[in-house]
Design brief:
55% helix, 11 helices, mainly alpha, elongated, two-stranded antiparallel sheet
């Protein structure tokens, strides 16, 4: 208190006296100015603040997804979604369980367990995890027949056998993937390119990475052929195209040395002699460089 009083006394002592203070000029105007000021209207009141946003209600919607009876927050973000106002009541919660009280009706657990087992068995069958011995034997027999037909060059029939083998087991099994891949190879070999490409595309989605990689490699062959413009060229040559080249030889030599030939096809002595002379001349021509080398070595040795 004393510090405040002393500060006030110091400031009052620094002020000038009333006699020494300068006189301030006074401005006197007409009386009408005072009257106009007194009669001027008061300034308008400041604007009131905006009302607060309405609180979230049961009928409000977040992002246009809320419906009546659901709680939707007023702020819509990626994590906001309509949900019941009372989750416990809507989803069966909020119960008071007494000692020994069952959590669910009788038989509900057995039904749920049976449904789970049924779905698991269905998944195993579709995935090829359950294969009977009879199915394996059938696939093995069909694949063996198709392979034999493929080795004999009967590719169309082999493709049919491979298709039958692929129809026994689900697509996800390795046996089915290999059978479809070989079927596509057979179809590609006989010129059924569209069907082969469709099968290659299907096998390319097989779960077995090795089988899918082979199918993708075959598909890349089609893409490369299109890029190199060789897909419009046919490499299939009919057998009769080679007859003009072999017919003169057959007409000149006949069928020399063919066992069991008789009549016009029987070997003749002049044909046989001509053939022997041709062979001897060919051997002499081949041995001529060797004879020249030997002669040169003998001359060098004698000198």
């Amino acid at each position: 208190g004393r510090a405040v009083a002393s500060s006030i006394a110091e400031r009052s002592a620094a002020l000038p006296d009333a006699e020494d203070a300068p006189e301030a000029p006074a401005r006197i105007g007409p009386a009408t100015d005072v009257a106009s000021i007194a009669s001027s209207p008061s300034p308008p009141p400041p604007p009131s603040p905006p009302p607060p946003p309405p609180a979230a209600t049961e009928s409000s919607e977040a992002g246009g997804r809320g419906t009546a009876g659901e709680y939707s927050p007023s702020v819509s973000t990626w994590g906001v979604f309509p949900r019941p106002k009372d989750i416990s009541r809507s989803y069966g919660g909020g119960r008071t369980l007494r000692p020994g009280q069952a959590l669910e009706p009788e038989g509900a657990a057995e039904e749920r367990l049976a449904e789970t087992r049924r779905r698991v068995e269905e998944y195993k069958k579709n995935a090829g995890l359950i294969v009977s011995a009879e199915q394996e034997r059938e696939v093995r027999e069909l694949t063996s027949e198709a392979t034999q037909l493929q080795e004999l060059g009967r590719l169309s029939q082999a493709a049919e056998r491979f298709a039958a083998a692929a129809a026994v087991l689900p697509f996800r099994t390795d046996q089915t993937g290999e059978a479809l891949l070989l079927q596509a190879v057979c179809l590609d070999s006989v010129g059924r390119v569209d069907e082969a490409k469709e099968l290659y595309s299907r096998v390319a989605t097989h779960p077995n990475a090795k089988i899918a990689r082979k199918a993708n490699q075959m598909l890349y062959g089609f893409t490369a052929a299109e890029d190199l413009k060789v897909d419009q060229v046919s490499f299939v040559v009919p057998p009769e195209a080679y007859e003009p080249f072999f017919q003169p030889l057959v007409g000149k030599w006949g069928v020399v040395g063919e066992p069991g030939a008789s009549g016009a096809d029987a070997p003749r002595e002049e044909d046989a002699g001509e053939f022997v002379g041709l062979v001897a001349g060919s051997l002499a021509l081949l041995s001529l460089p060797i004879l020249l080398i030997l002669a040169k070595a003998v001359l060098l040795h004698s000198s």
